[in-house]
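About this split. The held-out portion is used to measure sequence recovery: a designer receives only the structure tokens and must propose an amino acid at every position. Recovery is the fraction of positions where the proposal matches the reference. Here is one held-out target exactly as it appears in the evaluation file.
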């Protein structure tokens, strides 16, 4: 870049960065196209004439967010900076940040579907009280049990509905039954079928994601037993969303349990425009990696540690230990 060219570049950079002029305004003054002004500003950075510094301690987490959004074509990623935080503080931050984001996006959406799980419980507990009578909440899966009722879909729908002053729909069925025949009969029940059909058309799906092998809520609640684990490993299952086990290829596993779940399947969920999940436990790493790669979710709240590992592709498949 010669001196004349450099001087013109500096002039344009001053107009843009110091005087606050738009690229269109500069282009009009200089008598050139806006695209040329954009190119000159980029050249100014590349040649070290202009350096941009972001003075914020959130810069690291925001960089991870942008990289994940770009890599997986995500709608939004929220990364929690865990530096100096203990486990309870990380949970609290995840609940607060996910709740505030849900509040933001729910302002323009009318129908929200809710799955089940501890991470969604944390988010709903953190959700502020609002007045959104135009919103309707739907369970994405059944859930009738005296045990752990606080993380079941119907209870989560009820609690969020109270906070939002929203309309509420319930799915009066268990999450899973003993065999596909009973599931088919229940799914054809007029009331159950109506709710599931409406749930397929929600604008936002709030989803739990987990691994069946570590810290499994499904084992804790009793939906699956230790004996089932061997079968899941045989079918290369890495995780579940909405109690539907999925394989390393991002597909529903061809197992009887999946055929006995009363709720939306993964193909139904993939058609929902906004699919949000929270993953702050390292046990969810592999399941999350597959879910992102196969676009099962497109909004994510996670930690900087998990985000970094996913971006660096440091996750080793557990299946090398299964054989």
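Reference sequence for scoring:
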């Amino acid at each position: 870049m010669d001196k004349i060219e450099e001087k013109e570049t500096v002039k344009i950079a001053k107009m843009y960065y110091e005087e606050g002029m738009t690229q269109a305004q500069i282009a009009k003054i200089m008598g050139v196209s806006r695209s040329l002004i954009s190119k000159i500003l980029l050249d100014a950075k590349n040649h070290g004439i202009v350096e941009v510094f972001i003075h914020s301690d959130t810069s690291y987490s925001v960089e991870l967010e942008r990289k994940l959004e770009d890599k997986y074509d995500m709608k939004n990623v929220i990364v929690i900076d865990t530096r100096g935080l203990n486990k309870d503080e990380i949970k609290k931050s995840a609940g607060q940040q996910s709740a505030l984001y849900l509040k933001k996006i729910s302002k323009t959406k009318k129908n929200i579907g809710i799955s089940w799980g501890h991470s969604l419980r944390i988010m709903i507990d953190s959700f502020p009280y609002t007045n959104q009578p135009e919103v309707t909440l739907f369970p994405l899966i059944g859930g009738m049990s005296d045990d752990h009722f606080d993380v079941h879909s119907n209870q989560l729908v009820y609690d969020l509905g109270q906070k939002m002053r929203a309309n509420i729909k319930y799915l009066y069925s268990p999450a899973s039954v003993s065999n596909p025949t009973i599931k088919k009969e229940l799914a054809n029940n007029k009331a159950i079928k109506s709710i599931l059909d409406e749930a397929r058309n929600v604008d936002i799906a709030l989803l739990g994601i987990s691994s069946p092998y570590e810290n499994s809520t499904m084992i804790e609640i009793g939906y699956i037993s230790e004996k089932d684990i061997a079968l899941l490993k045989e079918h290369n299952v890495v995780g579940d969303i909405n109690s539907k086990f999925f394989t390393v290829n991002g597909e529903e596993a061809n197992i009887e349990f999946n055929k006995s779940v009363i709720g939306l399947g993964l193909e139904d969920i993939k058609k929902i425009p906004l699919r949000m999940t929270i993953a702050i436990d390292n046990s969810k790493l592999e399941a999350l990696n597959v879910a992102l790669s196969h676009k099962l979710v497109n909004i994510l709240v996670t930690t900087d540690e998990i985000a970094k590992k996913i971006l660096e592709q440091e996750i080793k498949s557990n299946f090398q230990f299964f054989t």
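Annotator remark: Strands lie at 76-80, 111-114, 136-139, 167-168, 204-207, 209-210, 237-241, 244-247, 274-279, 299-303.
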